Amino acid sequence: MDLSIIIVNWNARAHLARCLPALARQAHAPLEVLLVDNASSDDSVDYVRRHHPEVRLLLPGRNLGFAAGNNLAVRQARGERVALLNPDAFPDPDWLAGYAEAIREHPGCACFAGRLLDAADPAREAGAIG
């Protein structure tokens, strides 16, 4: 399965240091990772260039916002499918393999979503009340 991962970033350099290595550890390797940088004022772009040269940087030169940033990357993605990922997420190594399996089992389904867990308490879903 050809899959492109899209990350829209704005001043999230501290999170990228955890997010991008987590993508590199995926059991099912993505075709590409695209990072749209929405005119960050931190060193996000320099960090990606130095430590993750495999990531395709898209630099629109201004803050497009989340939706427009994703749309820009979707138009340039080479994968048959795309996965959207926030820069503060750090997926488990089997995250993409799970998507690949779900797509094989349900080829007519247009959209899949992952389960979000609270990093402080992985047994608890993020946003859950209780």
How many β-strand stretches?
Answer: 6
Largest beta sheet: what is the strand line-up? 3-2-1-4
Strand content: 15-25%
What is the H/E string?
EHEHEHEHEE
Mean pLDDT, all residues: 89
Oligomer: single chain
Please identify the structural class as seen in this structure: alpha/beta
How would you describe this structure to a colleague?
The protein is α/β, with parallel strands linked by helices and 130 residues long. It has 4 helices and 6 strands; from the N terminus they run βαβαβαβαββ.
Summarize the structure.
By secondary structure, this protein is an alpha/beta fold. The protein has helices at residues 13-24, 44-51, 66-76, 95-105; strands spanning 3-9, 32-37, 56-58, 81-85, 117-118, 121-125. It is globular.
Show the helix and strand layout:
Layout: E1 3-9, H1 13-24, E2 32-37, H2 44-51, E3 56-58, H3 66-76, E4 81-85, H4 95-105, E5 117-118, E6 121-125
Parallel strand pairs: 1-2, 1-4, 2-3
Antiparallel strand pairs: 5-6
Features:
single chain, 130 residues, alpha/beta, four-stranded parallel β-sheet, two-stranded antiparallel sheet, 4 helices, 32% helix, 22% strand, disordered C terminus
